[in-house]
Amino acid sequence: MPYPEPPPQLNRLTPSNAIRFMGPGLIVASVTIGSGELVWASRSGAIFGTAMLWVFLFAGIFKALQVYSSARHFVLTGEHPLSAWQRNPLLRGWFPIALIAVPSIFAMPLLFSGIAEAIGFYLLQMLGFPESGPRVAAWAYNEFAGNVAATLILGGCLLLSIATSLRLLEKISSVIIAILLISVSIAALFYSPNIIDILSGLVPSFPDFQPWVQEKYPESMGNKTRWSELALYLIAVGGGTYDYIGYVGFTRYHCWGLAGNKMFRREQLQEAIENDSKVIQRAKIWTRAPLMDVTVSFTLVIGATILFAILGSVVLHPQQVIPAGNELLGQQENFLAQLNPHLVWIFRVGVIFAFIGTLYGAYAIFRQTAIEALYAIFPERSTDKAIDYTKLATNLYCFFGGVILMWLPQAVSGNIADRIVLSAIICGAFTCGIWCFAMLIINRTDLPKALRMGRSLWISLLIAGSIMSYLGLRSIIEYFAN
After folding, report:
1. Residue 408, C-beta contacts closer than 8 angstroms, at least 6 positions apart
2. Can you give the pTM of this predicted structure?
3. Which of 40, 155, 315, 430 is the most buried (most CB within 10 A)?
């Protein structure tokens, strides 16, 4: 029998049991809600009103399918999809390394610099730090102060991430998510948004920018297209491929099914099925663990994203105010300030903890991403010592890469929004889409027929891959054409 005995909680798909099996999803949810949802969903509401809500809904569902199919494969075979792709003759090299692993690793400093700077500048603004003063060497006064704050935050989150365990990280992530969701839910209920507008926004449409967007924000939005905005919104929900390599990799530490236990090839699984009729039943029970984790975490992510987008539409859109450039957080204070000025400090504290949680969790996710790349590319060299070196190298790369980008002149590195847009283009909808196609391939080649995806999951994954690939490719073409 290749599969261990499943815990009794997996026998019933109930809400309480689903909460018990929330693990990797909590980390990714806290990382993306802290930055993607709070910033980019609010920005979509500010620019388009409720017209782009459909993007967040469908992107969340499609990515949930992407992640579940991947974690399911890991649970059933004991092999991470990245390693399975590298073994596959059709995918080897060009797909797992050139299109998934390398771009994901390249995007890491872009994200760390952007997130750290966003919270650094916001912290100085919150504390009333003067915006003007004498230049410090090559930097303007406020740019220098913001970079100092961002560097300290980035270093502090690294130390915190190294010093704590995965279990503690998951618990902290759950607290951050709960605080954010309660706050935005109360705010959204207070403003009583138009239900018809919300429902209309869930129907696909793609409006262009209103004239005021580029007129009022010529530096930040003057050269932007609606396709570059779409790239941001697609990655805002649940993150991108750089998150999902690590997300699926975390499954090995929970030892669900064969993940983290032992790897079985298709022939071995087929032989086990033929020798024991209970193998299929036990295997399918184990797939419920990632199903519950993905379902709960992506439900939270989609809900938070839509709530922030609605708040942006009812508060920021009428004022014609957009989170843009280096000012990505200050405008959202209006969500609670209009309820009561004293509530602004609740929002500010929540934002700081959310973004610190984002960086804290991102270090853990990207370490795991690098480890899975090591397993896939150099399986024979993946010793405990090599894994320790990989963790150290990833920590240093993310920290120093982020620091270098934030201290470079903005004419070279771009502002915060520009860097995050670039990371969204590199590891966004297009790579998520072709990831779905790659899962369909190894589902066929690596699993016996009895353990392959059901028709509904297979068709849903094909649709998700097709739509994300198309939208992502259009975003890439439009981005580089402009």
Report:
1. none
2. 0.89
3. 40
